[in-house]
Amino acid sequence: MKILSKDFFSRFRLGDAGFLDNIRYENGVLLLGGWSVCKNEEPYQRPQKIHVVYGDRFIGEITNFAADRPDVAKAFAGFPLECGFSEKIYFACEEFEPLLTELFAESGNGNIYQLHKDQKYTFLFQLEPTGKCNLRCAQCPNTVYSGFNNRDISEEDIDAVSDMIRKSSTICYDGFGEFFLSRNIHKALEKTPLRSHVIVHTNGMLLDKNYDLVLNNAPPLRQLIVSLDSLREDRYGVIREGGSLWHVLANMRGLKKRRDRLGRTLPYIVPNMKIMNLNFDEFEDFIDLAAEFDSYLELVYLYDARKMSGSPEEDGLLAYEKQQPRFHSRQIATAVERAMEYARGKGVCIVWSGACPEPIRGTKDENDYIGTRRPIYECPMADCSTAMQLDGKIMFCVWQTSPLFNWRVEETTDLQRHPRAVRARAMIKKGIIPHECSGACCQFVGREISLENNNSCGNEVYSGGWQA
Ligand SMILES: C[S@@+](CC[C@H](N)C(=O)[O-])C[C@H]1O[C@@H](n2cnc3c(N)ncnc32)[C@H](O)[C@@H]1O
Ligand code: SF4
Ligand code: SF4
User: Fold this and answer.
1) Residue 11: which domain range?
2) Is 385 part of any domain?
3) Ligand having the closest approach to the CA of 228
4) Does the model's pTM come out above 0.85?
5) Chain mean pLDDT for the chain
6) What pLDDT is attached to residue 322?
């Protein structure tokens, strides 16, 4: 069986190409059900084939797309009715792990896309590479809290999480520090399977010193997201203290030039803008910039973090409280709507990141939350996600306002079995907010406070997983 190689990804593109709904393994037969249409190709087309990958190997191909999927054809105008597949792959495996199965669609043009999977077959791992940083962004916990975790990931740490790295569908090597200051992160990247979707955020200042690191590790690195926040020198200097806008932009362009010269598509270079009251008039400039790179723009609302207000930075150049989008939510909602239209015209894909993964409605609710609320029992994170910081915090997600436990002290990272993780998961499924999620700004909690009595939490509630 052929091994998945970096070469295979030279034609890789981000984009929707369908869904793997069902994975079943019985007596040496893998049954796969789903649908595929390469949505990013004009006109929409079914792939010429789907490559089936298990672990680091190609184990088969799917070429028959004759199954009717009326649900899909109804949901997406222009999609063919017969875009479904239902395939048997014969392969021997001692202990089958559904998480290791990935499908890659190959379009008629030879472009490769990865299919999405049902959440129960995915695992999202967020791992902090370092707590160190070379900037002092006014809105970042790393700046606001003195004595913030200053550790770098060690080889032992990487060993401790190697199984999570191995089985991850998506890995964010992100935390409250600067990725390129981590001295060991390349060792984690080397262990990361090529089939995983790896995302990294950076302030971009050290990118020029790390072109080789980036290009040698893409894949698995698929998205290098560069946090810019403003494209105006004066504002950039206030938000991203210590950084240089022109230097970061030059670094991004330098990386693109090298990547393109190698004839590769990865990593996508994605500008990032944190939406605040100060900068929401810059959407169109950001969309133009994204169009210059790979036509992806990441947007994130400034976290609705209560602890940050009243911090020493309140009197500084950028008062956190005044920057929170909930104070101008109507104007921001309208500006976002216009920006989405502009992006569509330019062919730029907007990706929502953070606790509020969709455009805000423009009105606050009784908890001052501006996103669209959903019941907590719909939160998938407790089942399929782990977030770890180097100071020992381990959580289902980065929005939890206090950790489940300290993985360094308890010497385990097993959220399936740890009693507190089991208890918190059960509460979420019953629709009860565990104290670790209290006041979180995610759409499942919407700043609501947990009624669970917990002394370690006290009365104070912090949003954004930042209890220092
Ligand atoms: C903490 S940084 C770490 C990575 C890298 N140092 C950087 O600046 O991209 C990860 C992401 O969080 C964002 N971030 C920092 N403070 C934030 C806040 N208060 N609200 C929303 N996003 C924030 C940053 O802009 C960045 O895109
Ligand atoms: S560069 Fe990133 S980690 Fe550093 S202070 Fe700014 S946002 Fe925080
Ligand atoms: S903070 Fe929100 S997203 Fe995270 S586990 Fe709790 S409910 Fe889910």
Assistant:
1) 6-117
2) no
3) 1
4) yes
5) 91
6) 84
